[in-house]
Design a protein that fits this description.
The protein is an alpha+beta fold. It is built from three helices and five strands, in the order H-E-E-E-H-H-E-E. Strands 1-2-3-5-4 form a five-stranded antiparallel β-sheet, with helices on one face. This is Histidine triad (HIT) family protein.
Length: about 120
Amino acid sequence: MSDADELFLRIIAREVPADVVYETETTLAFRDIKPQARTHVLVVPKTRYRNVAELAAADPGLLADVIATAHKVAELEGIAGSGYRVVFNTDADAGQTVFHVHAHVLGGEQLGFFGRYRS
């Protein structure tokens, strides 16, 4: 595990400061330090899994907790009624840079399309 992969564990342990938005027994939600939308909050399970596929296979209940926390964040941020996006980047080609599964909750403005179109 690299230093980057340990970052979220250190945030969960409160060794690294973060702007915490919401916390449950199993998840922690905090603001992204490089926001890609007006609202950009990361939701991480307190137990480390490499990516969403690994989490889904090992602990579907915890994956459900992550999604429930993402919705709660949207409510707290006032974007649940206007629309929001929940994104999991899975592995490097998809843009995952920290290999501790995390959901991005994005909203608070009109979001554009994502991904690249290739003909």
